[in-house]
Amino acid sequence: MIRFKMAKLTTTLLIIMVVAVVMLAGCGKSDVPVKAQKDYILIGRVNPVTGPLASFGAGTPQVEEKAIEAINKDGGIYIAEYGKKLPIKIIIADSESNPTKAAEAANKLILQDKVDLLMAAHTPDTVNPVAAAAERHKIPCITVDALSDAWLSGGPYTWNYHAFWKVRSLVDVYLDMWDQLSTNKKIGLIAPNDPDGMAIADMLKKKAPERGYTLVDPGRFPPNTKDYTAMINQFKQADVDIVLAMQIPPDFATAWKQMKQQGLVPKVMSAAKAILFPADIAALGDDLGEGLTTEVWWSPVSGNKSSLTGQTSSELAKMWTELSGRQPMATLGYKHASMEIVVDVLKRAQSLDRNKLREAIKSTNLETVVGHIQYNDQNLAETLLVGGQWVKGKNWPWEMNIISNKKMPVVPLSAEAMKYMPSSR
What we know:
This protein is an alpha/beta fold.
């Protein structure tokens, strides 16, 4: 009987010891959940690495990684639910300059790669499908560099927040540039039936007459059109002094070369989206780029500083040239600014919870290298732009003169006024 009681007591003591060991082990650990094993914050970025929009995508991920280099060296950003700093890791998915591929890339980043936050840039062809994927899967998404009007057409948005300028600002910049020259104020429009083309056509129809201009609009047409003869003849018959194209680079190159071949050289040739980069001008060949005018979103002379690194636009441009050996491009500022927004959001949220991240994005109030970012009730932070003209350069084969800054006087002019197109009639 005594032996039985001793065995029972021994068993009881063993159970107590096991429980105590388990409790002590628990006391020795943090109350941070198992997910604290996470080693980094994963940011997914959809970018046109290949295809006709590749000139927009150039520089990613180098620019973004350089922007967060110091933060990662310091261990990253403190995330409360993990009880530690986590570095930022960026994973790039190629949209191939195709809306369908952009959507597929976004879905893969969300569902397979399990990104914590989604980013996208470079025209509605990339941004809108990514925004739609973010809404569908309820994941925070920060986008830049797509005409805001075209982006808004996909809303309303709950999870996507966008920063860029609107078509009214774009049209005002062109009208301000054209006002500098003596013309008959007749504008020929080349705009396809994509979101950008439809947006600029609608706004020009409204604003051009208000400023004393007449719009000659042949109507919308499919992207990748190869023959512009009918449009060119219509412009000739109307005796237009100004032509504005809103096209991707290869399509504009086709249209502009055919205009030259068929004897139409207007006093002013402007192209939105198509000639933002030196590479696009060089690709035209010969001297076809001289005197072309376009919008300028950001340039080395822009008068803003990075909230992340403290770099001026000039310093950021210099850094890029030293890093790549290449000429700074208009998208550089927005690539950097998008990381400014991401870092600011993560620092304020101190969390990777989707709802907390969304709330942090919503309350963004930040000065960036492209200007002030503060989202309105449509999740849009509207930025501004200036006007520029391509000329043969001193330091680079082609350089941009800032010729109109009414929207952003903080950006200094680099030429007194716009010049007529060479060989214009």
